[in-house]
Specification:
Layout: H1 2-17, H2 32-40, E1 42-46, H3 51-54, H4 75-84, E2 89-95, H5 124-134, E3 138-143, H6 157-172, E4 178-180, E5 187-189, E6 196-198, H7 208-218, E7 223-226, E8 232-234, E9 249-250, H8 262-267, E10 274-275, E11 278-283, H9 301-310, E12 317-321, H10 332-348, E13 358-361, E14 383-384, E15 392-411, E16 419-428, E17 431-438, E18 445-464, E19 469-476
Parallel strand pairs: 1-2, 1-12, 2-3, 3-4, 4-7, 7-8, 8-11, 11-12
Antiparallel strand pairs: 5-6, 9-10, 13-15, 14-19, 15-18, 15-19, 16-17, 16-18
Helix pairs in contact: 4-5, 6-7, 9-10
Bound molecules: beta-L-fucopyranose.
Amino acid sequence: MKRVFILLISVILLNGCSKVKPPEPFGPVPSARQLAWHDMEYYMFAHFTVNTFTDKEWGYGDEKESVFNPSELDCRQWAKVAKEAGMKGIIITAKHHDGFCLWPSQFTEHSVKNSIWKDGKGDVVRELRQACDEYGLKFGVYLSPWDRNSSIYSTPGYLTYYRNQLRELLKNYGDVFEVWFDGANGGNGYYGGAREKRNIDNKTYYDWPNTHKIVRELQPSAVMFSDAGPDVRWVGNESGMGSLTNWCLLKKDEMYPGGNFAKILGEGHEDGNYWVPAEVDVSIRPGWFYHRNQDSLVRSPENLLELYYSSVGRNSNLLLNIPPDRRGLLNENDVKSVLAFKELRDKEFETDLAKGKKVTASECRGKEYKGLNVNDGDPETYWATSDSKTTGDVVINLGAETEVNRIILQEYIKLGQRVQEFNVSAFVDGGWKQILDGTTIGHKVIRKFPVVKASKIKVTIAESKACPVISNIELYRAPGE
Ligand code: FUL
């Protein structure tokens, strides 16, 4: 009798302690460097070069180095603004299409070393690096593959030159979080005095795999951006619009920089075999570079908030360009707008109404995967169903009738992007009323809906590639309707 009792107790104890296995990853999953990138969400692009002084968007490559002469360059001001605006880093155009280098590259004369700024002893890239460190920001570099100054552009020798410059940037300026490879390629240029049109074959000329190896070797934590990855993809437009359906997946072997893939770049490939999430790059002004005649055309704080919804709110990161002016400072108008946008955003997401509320799930795979994981503020816990299910719902009980008009949803992407269709309902007048529907989620989706006064909110996963894994749900009552 005693033996049976002990056996029974051990079985009960063992069962209580035995852990249910987590879901297996489904499909491609993000690398550690991509996960760190996803968490950044919002950071600054700084377009600055000879164009700032010649009033151009694309320098021809024949500008005198002496035109580059910022009167009050202060990268600390850029970094301070970025920090106050809630951005997580800054990517600088170390070299744009004109070939002018903002650092004293030993491989060209077309650089700051031949400008009159700081008697040719200055280095904008270093100043920005130091400013980023001071303000706790990450630092990234844009190095234009197209070089309208170089006499050897379009020959194989140019690749050696390009890679040498890349090495200079990646070896001498500390940790880089993102390397930005532009897709704009070939055309008219100065090319060392030839002044002609040079065309290259986008698919073959740059031999990208060998350039990528250099980045992996010198900066293993950096993600590489281009139209087609390898780590981060272009969203397919420069107007700030992420796609509502947005897979972080891509058949990247079918893509190449400079190709015509706008729609695919927006949506990704549902059945993609690589994790290559989208980045939305957009300028706060009509141009990428500073032009005085655009001082009155700076995007308003309200417009920036819309961009935030259509980028970060659509499973993309937001790379917002704020071009320094001829003084080498972010212009007052831009600063005012981007900081006011921060205030708007803070008000928009002031109090998470879901936090700490009771959550019930239609089903969960075990107590470690309970519904309450979606609002515990811990990104490492998630609600998951058993493997046999690809649908399910969680209900957040708000306790009392509460006004709500925004929702944030996040998948636990370490296990892959799964959700194909979801909807949200509110419990009003004794019944469920659907308030929105959507397709993909991924790292993050933020959706607006008209104010609803409800006691409960239900998130239904209607279709998923494998059992849903939802790590976070937040609810807000943003100002206005
Ligand atoms: C484009 C470039 O041609 C623009 O000048 C700008 O740098 C933008 C971010 O990418 O392809």
